[in-house]
Fold this protein.
Amino acid sequence: MGLGKREENFKRYIKNHFEMQLPPEVSLFYVRGVRVGKNELIKSKINGELGYAACDAGFNPTNSFIQNFGYLAKKNVVRVKEKEAKEFANGKDLKMDLGIKNKYIIVKYGWHIVGLGYYDHDQKKIINKIPEKRRREIINEI
Amino acid sequence: MELNEFKEWLASYTDADRCLEAFYNQKEFFRVNTIKTPVEKFLEITKLKCDQSKYCTEAFELKEEENYAIGKTWEYFLGYIYPQSLSSILVSLVLGPKSDNIILDVAAAPGSKFSHIAALMQNNRLLVGNDLKKEKISALYSTINRLNILNCITTIRDGSRLNWRERFDKVLLDAPCTALGSGEGALNRWTLDHSKKISTLQKRMLFSAFDALKPGGELIYSTCTYAKEENEEVVSNLLQNVQSAKLLDIKLDIPHDSGLSEYGNEFRKCYRIYPQHLQSEGFFIAKIGKGD
């Protein structure tokens, strides 16, 4: 799949799933260190994928993408209380019955985006998709 | 090196007692990541007890009673802040990034100045973050992702052999150094020979970084150490060998000592920031221009 098509498909996915429209200036895709979409300036030998632009063949969103752009989502957003938000930030799954089918959701506390989760209908819980390195034991309030 | 011996050496630069006292009693600072939240909004939402710095609107001093690990706060987790010393924050202000610039940070990891530069560019145009090793770039990625930096690419190259001739409007070389101004451990390990040795690498890196600068561009050379071998001598070596390189005035009104004039009067344009100036890390900053 060409890069342009891939970007187009990804944007369609997030629009359908999260009702999320990225700002027009955000069209940055990084593949093998080459910045495409604007004038290519420097080539590098390393992989330069940033995570939010990168998505796998099934267009699963990444936690980074959600933490940075989740505020734009209007659909599949689950608001939680502070205690649950802290647990989720610390990497725990959240046991709750949302009455929805299996799907990716955004966990939000107040207007803060805590991270990406996957709702498992059978287990009735939000499976934590925050990478281990990003998880934190939060010790204050906001 | 024994402390007395070190103090004697340090006294050739500054008031050693005041410097060391301030060094051991540094204030804790952080920077608001304006990419994710404007300062005004941050002040509305945060419950951290902090004071805004008078030298930089996005810099804040954490009050002493606020003694918990800043890395465990919501503000950190959500990417609203980056813990960074005040003197380190000021380096990016000296660089003066503009939103239409193409900028290179030669030794970017873990991304403190890099992320500040991105914020000052308002996440526009292009910022290239380079470092020597993949592990270091991995730390840089964490910063990029947490703070939502969009205008960047990262590269892994030897900073002393970049081979990017005249591509950048501005270049930051925050060089690897003996870190006498920032690390307590560094002070215990340091010898003058160490400074002399690393100076060779710094000189090569500065040549390479300067080569990457477009004519008319500006380069910031900085270190967090005091030894002249790693500071004025490195810059002097460039000025002596490259005709188009010249020292520029730094227009930032902050407490500092001037660079050492034993290398020439123009070195008074450089800033030597000692811990007693800002209750923060020691830094050396030189601003170098490239003639057309």
